Structure formats: structure tokens, C-alpha cells
């Protein structure tokens, strides 16, 4: 009974192995149905996408340098203001009293200074006649100089009080539009270490900018002056345009993702764009027009060894035969996964932008066509050199005998994704 339990699974394994061997060995290249695409001409664009926030070109936060109660507000949301225009007033009662107190202090200091001047004049006359000592003369001179310094200090105090009184009148620092008002009449504002924000004024809403966060993997492709297109949720069917103005060097790390801020200038003559809108940005890195291009998947396709046409050596030339033998040996190494130095060779080929396409020959075998590649947007790749013409049928994949699609594969360093020099 125990032997039967062991023999039955063994028989099942042998049967499955035999069936698998028969199934795969019975499938030949003649049963393969290839998927083709034509070599075509068209435009290729390489872009970088990001998201950002719209803001005015110049935005100023208006605060106050003195404390007090707001007695008047002359500007509201969306109000247009001119530089120097009064937009708010702080109750000046206390500040005006400080000015009067400083004026009185200056008058007292001036009176003391005048008295010291007269005392010094009398002491000097007595000292010149020998009726006053040197000590009396020095004391009178010192008192005069000290009182003159007190006058200057009082003058500075008066000037400070007048400046603070002037600060009670809040004026617009630039021409623009009030986009934020944070206070109301009767509210007390306190100027401490940081000035409280009363208004936010945008300089010119016809000139906007987008602060886009670009991932560190893409920032190397972004340069000043590149064209930008973007959309906003408010106008999903309209595309807006801009230009990269600045790439800020300060990195922003959010959840272990490093981004860099890219400033984009945007015209807004029709005033559709508003501050704070979220923009979906597309930065045009490079573009080729009317260029020869192929699907990128075609460069990654790797057929099986028995699907590749084996070229015969030329018997008339020993040098050509030797070259063909080396080519055949190299192809065999690629089909078998490559040798120990194959990885470095593959990397060298890829960095030189070489690739390989496959076309179907007369005997239903695949023939390689080595090409030099250029720009790629991920879907299509530019062909800059190679024996391939527009309209040619190239293989991008294949279907199994059962009709299922077989994805392209380059195996272990296989030539499907290989860049080869031709």
C-alpha cells in the first residue's frame, strides 16, 4: 500500500513532463504569428510633468510697525490700490500724545543747555581774570557739553515719536489688487517681534507665475527658457502656456521624496487664472518634428534562436568568412545569455544609443536591422541612422500557437533591449 502512494505521484510527474516536452517541441517557428508595426514619420516630444500652484508675479504682505486700534479701513478684497494710497488708519491718540511728550522733553533739554551755556560764559570770564579755579572752569565746560548731548537725544526722541505717528497711517507699498484683508475696524493690532499682516496685495494679476514641484529624477532635464503648457481644474479644456524662469536650488523633502521648485512665468491677460489654483504642468524638454520613429517596444523584442535567420558565409573570401564566424559566435553568446563580460558590453552599447529591429524574411525567418536611436518619449523612439525606411514592417511581438500574446523579452542581457553598433 505504501509503494502505491509513492508510484502514483511519480507517474503523474512523468506524464506531465512528457506532455510539456511534446507541447513545446511541437511548436515551431512556422506556428508563430508575429505582430507588426510600420516605421513612420512624425513628431516626438520628451516632457517632464509636475504639479504646482499659481500665484501673482509679485505679492506683498502689508503689516504695521506700531500697535493700536484700527479706526478706519479704506480697502477691501479685490480693491485696486495705488502706491502711497491710504488703505487703513490706526487710532493716533496715544501716538500723538507721545509726540507732545517728546516735544516737551526737547524743550526742557534746550532750556538746561541754554542755562549751562550762560554759566560756562561767566565762569570763563572769571577764569581769565584769575578769579575762578581750573576746577570750576572744567566743571562748567563739562556741564555745557552734557546738556548739549541731552538736547540731541531729545531731538532723536521727538523724531522717533513723529515716525511712529506716521506709521499709524497704513499706505499701499505697490500698485496692485488687494487679494486678502485680515483685519476689521475696531480690531487691536499688536506689533511685537513680527509685524501682523493686515493686507496682501498682488502687484499685477495679468502676470502670474507657477511654482511647480519637480522630482529630483527629472530636474536634470529642466532648463531656464523651456516652453511649458499646463491646465487647471477651472478650465479643463483650455491649455495655458508659460516659460521656465528659474530653478531654485533649495530642495524640498516631503515623505522622503526630494523636489525642486521651478518658477514658471505665465501671461494672464484675460484674467482667467487666479492665485492659488492648482496647475498640472508639462515642461517640454526636447522635440523632433517629422522624424523617422518606431515603437519603443520593437527595440525590446527578442525572438527565439530558431526564429532567427542564419546567414551563410561567403566562400570566396576568407576574411569575410572569419568576420561572419565572429558575428555568428557573438550572436550565439547573446542568445545564450552572454558571458561574464557581456553586461559591460551591453551597457556600452546602450550608452551609445544603438538598437536593433527585426524584419521578416522570405523564408519566414527574422532578420536583424541595426539602427542608431535618438529621442524617445517612452512610446516611440527616433531612428537617426540605419538601413530602415518609412513604411517598413517591423516585428514588435508575437502570438503563441494558441493565439495568446507573448510579451517582448530581452532575457538575461538578451539583444531585445540591446543597443548594437552596426
Task: Please characterize this protein's 3D structure.
The protein is α+β, with helices and mostly antiparallel strands and 422 residues long. Among the domains are: 29-44 and 293-417, no CATH class; 92-167, Helix Hairpins (Orthogonal Bundle), CATH 1.10.287.470. The protein is 30% helix and 37% strand. It is built from six helices and 20 strands. The protein has helices at 2-26, 93-128, 134-167, 296-300, 318-335, 342-351, and strands spanning 33-38, 40-56, 59-63, 68-73, 80-81, 86-90, 169-171, 176-181, 188-189, 197-202, 207-215, 227-232, 235-254, 257-267, 278-295, 354-360, 366-376, 380-386, 393-399, 405-406. The strands form four sheets. It has a six-stranded antiparallel β-barrel. The protein has a four-stranded antiparallel sheet with strand order 3-10-8-5, with no helix packed on it. Helix 2 (93-128) packs antiparallel against helix 3 (134-167). It is elongated, with a radius of gyration of 42 Å.
Amino acid at each position: 500500500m505504501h509503494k502505491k502512494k509513492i508510484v502514483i505521484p511519480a507517474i503523474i510527474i512523468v506524464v506531465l513532463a512528457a506532455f510539456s516536452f511534446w507541447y513545446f517541441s511541437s511548436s515551431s517557428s512556422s506556428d508563430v504569428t508575429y505582430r507588426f508595426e510600420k516605421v513612420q514619420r512624425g513628431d516626438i516630444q520628451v516632457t517632464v510633468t509636475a504639479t504646482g500652484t499659481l500665484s501673482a508675479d509679485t505679492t506683498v504682505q502689508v503689516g504695521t510697525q506700531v500697535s493700536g486700534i484700527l479706526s478706519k479701513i479704506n480697502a477691501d478684497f479685490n480693491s485696486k490700490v495705488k502706491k502711497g494710497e491710504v488703505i487703513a488708519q490706526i487710532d493716533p491718540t496715544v501716538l500723538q500724545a507721545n509726540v507732545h511728550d517728546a516735544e516737551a522733553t526737547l524743550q526742557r533739554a534746550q532750556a538746561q543747555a541754554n542755562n549751562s551755556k550762560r554759566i560756562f560764559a561767566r565762569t570763563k570770564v572769571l577764569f581769565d581774570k584769575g578769579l575762578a579755579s581750573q576746577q570750576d572752569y572744567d566743571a562748567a565746560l563739562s556741564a555745557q557739553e552734557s546738556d548739549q548731548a541731552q538736547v540731541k537725544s531729545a531731538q532723536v526722541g521727538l523724531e522717533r515719536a513723529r515716525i511712529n505717528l506716521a506709521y499709524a497711517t497704513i499706505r499701499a507699498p505697490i500698485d496692485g489688487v488687494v487679494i486678502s484683508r485680515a483685519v476689521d475696524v475696531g480690531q487691536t493690532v499688536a506689533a511685537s517681534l513680527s509685524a501682523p499682516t493686515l493686507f496682501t496685495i498682488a502687484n499685477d494679476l495679468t502676470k502670474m507665475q507657477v511654482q511647480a514641484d519637480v522630482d529630483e529624477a527629472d530636474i536634470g532635464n529642466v532648463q531656464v527658457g523651456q516652453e511649458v503648457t499646463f491646465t487647471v481644474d477651472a478650465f479643463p479644456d483650455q491649455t495655458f502656456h508659460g516659460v521656465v524662469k528659474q530653478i531654485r536650488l533649495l530642495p524640498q523633502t516631503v515623505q522622503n521624496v526630494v523636489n525642486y521648485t521651478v518658477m514658471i512665468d505665465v501671461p494672464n491677460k484675460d484674467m482667467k487664472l487666479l492665485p492659488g489654483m492648482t496647475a498640472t504642468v508639462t515642461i517640454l524638454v526636447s522635440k523632433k518634428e517629422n522624424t523617422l520613429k518606431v515603437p519603443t517596444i520593437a527595440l525590446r523584442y527578442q525572438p527565439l534562436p530558431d526564429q532567427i535567420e542564419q546567414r551563410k558565409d561567403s566562400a570566396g573570401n576568407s576574411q569575410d568568412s572569419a568576420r561572419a564566424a565572429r558575428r555568428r559566435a557573438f550572436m550565439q553568446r547573446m542568445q545564450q545569455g552572454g558571458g561574464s563580460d557581456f553586461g559591460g558590453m551591453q551597457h556600452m552599447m546602450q550608452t551609445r544609443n544603438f538598437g536593433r529591429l527585426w524584419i521578416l524574411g522570405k523564408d519566414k525567418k527574422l532578420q536583424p536591422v541595426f539602427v542608431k536611436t535618438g529621442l524617445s518619449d517612452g512610446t516611440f523612439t527616433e531612428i537617426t541612422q540605419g538601413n530602415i525606411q518609412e513604411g517598413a514592417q517591423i516585428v514588435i511581438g508575437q502570438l503563441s500557437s494558441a493565439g495568446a500574446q507573448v510579451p517582448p523579452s530581452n532575457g538575461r542581457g538578451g539583444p531585445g533591449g540591446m543597443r548594437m553598433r552596426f
